[in-house]
Design brief:
5 strands, 25 helices, flat, 6% strand, 5-stranded mixed beta sheet
């Protein structure tokens, strides 16, 4: 019996070395677990064995797995620790059928296991959080990443499980690489590699390939080649490895970047054959798309056309909107090169339709989210009003009862005590009302601040979206129109007709320039790339004219200010300068920005026509109202001094923690 118990405990301990929904018990181990169930009389051992058998049968025979899960739950009722881990396994059962219930059960398991300071408990909690992150990754990638960083990784470190920690780092690296944050991807891939550097398996090869593709994107080609070579050394020991298509794909991209196009085509062909052997149809088609790009760059348009038309007929790669957009765009470009103008126009039109449809769906989703948020807010207000009414009714009933008792008990004994009681009651009620009113005012201020923050955040997000849509959508369409017009100019037209077309192209260039100016004003690129000080300096230079001089001074502005705070400061300065130029007609403006630790100071002085402060307090303009809202959002203070026909001085103090 002791020998079987030792075998079982060993199997149970190694079960925690795997994460996600992967099976962790092999056939031989499953046979041993079944033998233990027949031989042991301990309910706790039986419960643990049933949990592991549930994992073994989960993807093989769901009905059989459910029986083992139910049996394990029943046997765990008398054991607090086993009862705590029970929701973890139950969550895995609902992972595919009911994601909401699955996530709820994982959180319950985490809460129950938080009472235990053992490595097994830490590891189960880490797996619960990691599984949650996988569950929500498609719908909320940002929250998924946060769960891994803030929850799963710290718990995994406390458990001492380096294999699971390595897999989490790999997952984070993939997430950041997909979001084109290649420096962060490199950091997490390298961290994962440090934990498994001495292992010689496919998982390590996968890490080398991930690092190779990341170095390729960072244009560090020598390091990319080193990673490719290390992955190749490992994969030589694994014929028909699942990573073979990925290796040839990465190698082909590397060679194409070095302009070794024929060698790149050879690698892509090997990758296509490897994917066929593994029956990985989507991978095969993805590599074919890369092969198409090389053929197009070689100006082998007929060969490129055959591949891209073939891909347009494949359901696997055409299953997503983004893939369909890419393929239709490539079809239009290739057919245009082959002078098949009519067919090229057809696919360009289809590409535009998909782009418009995708934008419409995103807009509808945003509108629905805002509507739901608004309805929830209104419903909460109604609940609060009803709650206040009920409290007042209860208080009134209580007071009436108290008064009746006082009148019946005291009026016959002493009138003075009755008067003192009434006086005390009234004062107490008044204090309660004052306290309640003060509390209501504080809640109203907090609600107003939250509302202002939401409005400003929504405004910035909409600015970003519109700027991106203007630049990427309308800008691309205008560029396409210009290309088509350029082709028309090359046709043998009458000279007067060519001059007219050239005028139209000049007007189109002006439109593109104006479009870029509008997009830059909505979301300044310099702020995101070079920081607040550079963005403010550029803003002043753009607004300066022959009639308006702006003197910008910056002292001690740090790069550590959060991005959203930098955007709010930039908007405040932008609004102040706009008011001074448009409304005050100032010819000289001094804008000074300085920072001391977490305090940020803005001072603006102008020689404009000024305004009446008393009138402004009663009828605040939109611009000044926006400034006040942003200052309030940053818990700051604003002081305005203005004299009619003598100018205006504005001092703002902000907190930028």
């Amino acid at each position: 019996m002791a020998r079987y118990l030792f075998v079982f405990l060993y199997l149970f301990s190694i079960s925690f070395w795997c994460a996600g929904q992967m099976p962790i018990v092999k056939q031989s181990a499953a046979d041993s677990l079944i033998y233990i169930l027949q031989d042991t009389k301990s309910d706790s051992v039986k419960a643990r064995a049933n949990f592991l058998l549930f994992e073994y049968w989960q993807n093989r025979a769901p009905a059989k797995a459910k029986n083992h899960l139910d049996e394990a739950k029943n046997l765990s009722e008398r054991y607090p620790y086993l009862k705590a881990i029970s929701p973890f396994y139950e969550a895995k059962y609902y992972a595919a059928s009911d994601p909401v219930k699955c996530e709820t059960l994982y959180m319950k398991a985490d809460s129950l296991l938080s009472r235990y300071n053992t490595k097994d408990a830490y590891l189960l909690r880490a797996r619960a959080w990691y599984n949650c992150s996988v569950l929500i990754q498609l719908n909320d990638n940002k929250r998924s990443t946060t769960l891994i960083l803030d929850k799963a990784i710290p718990l995994t470190k406390r458990s001492g499980n380096n294999d699971l920690l390595s897999r989490m780092y790999l997952g984070l690296g993939n997430t950041f690489k997909n979001n084109r944050q290649y420096s962060l991807a490199e950091f997490y891939y390298s961290a994962a590699l440090q934990l498994v550097r001495n292992q010689f398996d496919e998982g390590t090869a996968d890490l080398y390939l991930s690092l190779a593709s990341t170095y390729y994107q960072l244009k560090r080609y020598q390091e990319a080649k080193k990673m490719l070579d290390k992955a190749k050394m490992i994969l030589l020991s694994f014929p028909n490895s699942r990573l073979a298509p990925l290796y040839y794909q990465t190698e082909g991209l590397y060679l194409a970047k070095l302009s070794k196009l024929e060698e790149a085509l050879n690698s892509f062909n090997k990758g296509i054959k490897a994917a066929e052997v593994l029956k990985e149809e989507y991978e095969r088609q993805a590599i074919m798309l890369m092969k198409y790009s090389v053929l197009y760059n070689q100006k082998k348009y007929n060969e490129a056309k055959q591949i891209i038309i073939y891909l347009s007929e494949q359901k696997e790669i055409m299953s997503t909107v983004n893939n369909r957009k890419r393929i239709y765009a490539e079809l239009a470009t290739t057919l245009n090169q082959l002078k098949e103008t009519s067919a090229a126009y057809k696919f360009q039109k289809e590409y535009s339709r998909l782009s418009d449809s995708l934008n419409d769906s995103r807009l509808k989703k945003d509108i629905n989210a805002l509507e739901i948020k608004f309805r929830n807010t209104e419903r909460q207000k109604e609940i609060e009003v009803l709650k206040v009414k009920n409290e007042r009714a209860l208080l009134a009933a209580k007071n009436t009862k108290l008064m009746n008792w006082l009148m019946s008990a005291v009026i016959a004994v002493l009138l003075m005590l009755l008067l003192l009681g009434i006086w005390y009651y009234r004062n107490k009620k008044k204090r309660r009302e004052l306290s309640y009113q003060k509390h209501l005012n504080e809640l109203e201020q907090q609600q107003q601040l939250k509302f202002s923050k939401a409005v400003l955040l929504g405004e910035e997000q909409e600015r970003r979206r519109l700027a991106r849509d203007l630049h990427d959508g309308l800008g691309g369409m205008l560029a396409g129109i210009k290309i088509n017009l350029s082709l028309q100019v090359k046709e043998p037209f009458v000279e007067a007709k060519k001059i007219e077309l050239q005028k139209v192209m000049a007007q189109l260039d002006s439109s593109v320039t104006e479009l870029r100016r509008i997009a830059h004003n909505m979301m300044p690129v310099n702020l995101l790339k070079f920081g607040l000080e550079t963005a403010l300096k550029d803003l002043c230079e753009v607004l300066m004219t022959e009639n308006t001089r702006i003197d910008f001074q910056a002292f001690g502005i740090e790069d550590t200010i959060p991005e959203q705070t930098q955007i709010n400061i930039y908007r405040i300065a932008q609004e102040m300068l706009a008011n001074a130029i448009r409304h005050a007609n100032a010819s000289n403006i001094m804008l000074q920005c300085s920072q001391h630790e977490n305090v940020f100071l803005i001072t603006q002085e102008d020689n404009g026509k000024g305004f009446d402060l008393n009138l402004t307090n009663n009828e605040t303009g939109i611009g000044l109202s926006n400034i006040k809202n942003r200052v309030g959002l940053l818990k700051g203070k604003m002081d305005i001094e203005s004299v009619m026909n003598e100018g205006t001085t504005i001092n703002i103090e902000l907190y930028v923690d």
